[in-house]
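Researcher: Please predict.
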Amino acid sequence: MIRLWQRLTRATQQGPDTDIRTLVRREFGLRVRQRRAYDEALTHSSMLDGDKTGLKSNERLEFLGDVVLDMTMANYLYRAFPEAQEGELTKRKSRIVNRKNLNLLGKNMGLHHLIQAKMRREDIHDSMVGNALEALIGAIYLDHGFKKTQRAVLLMLKHYGLDEQVNETHDFKSQLHQWATKRKKKLAFEVLKDDDAAGEERYEIAAKVNGEVYGIGIGRSKKLAEQEAARRAWKKVYDRRNASGGGQKRSNGDKPQASSGEGRRSRGAGSSRRRRPAKPKSESSNANQGSDKSSAKEGSRSRSGRSRSRRSGGNKPSESSNSAKA
């Protein structure tokens, strides 16, 4: 994602183009045949103030280019993801066909250097550049037809990371909702500003967690502004989780060393205490065994003595009888 962002925001190495022909050839690989349509695509509506020559602004071509771009992306996604449902295809398309992305693409091409407007070059808004890019796609369609325009637009988008963007799976708003629900936090999106300057709506929305602002997003629709606010809020959540996680790891890393040492010492002490009474048990068992053996011996001796006494007692009567007879 970082490499893609760097690719989108890097400046053109050749410097700003001085002619639309060079830009169209380099970015789209096509030649300009009907110059009038391209000049119209670069004309901002501010140029019409006081004009009496019949000059036309790029608003009509912007409408046409928007439809061509939508159709190009819809056809590409429909064929590239045959198993995807309508909701998933819409999400993938919105990652490419959105105001912020088109503004970045136009600026990276250097298109803002070619826009004709009654204002200073540094006062040209990013949205004017994105609109001019759509108008330029409309002019290419009028000049070359849909098939060539579709192929040229896809090549341009792939050069700026189309495949990476459509396969990106991050939905910051959904992730933020899951995080808030899991932690029983209240997530709300509040509209801070609803501007309609220069005939173009512009929303500013804040993502709040338990009343605290976590991120603010700006877009030409509420949906785009909410997604941008959710992205900024999720980045704040991610940074806080990393910070708190690192602190816990350090504190836990200190505690186990002390507790493990104490545990080893306590286990050692406990084992020594258990070993000491173990000896008397063995001695007492040996003593008991010895006493049992001695008692057994004494018993055998007593039995042998009784047997001898019985035998001796049996002889005495015979002797007395013999003496009596004598």
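Model: Confidence is low (pLDDT under 50) at residues 1-14, 246-274, 280-288, 309-326.
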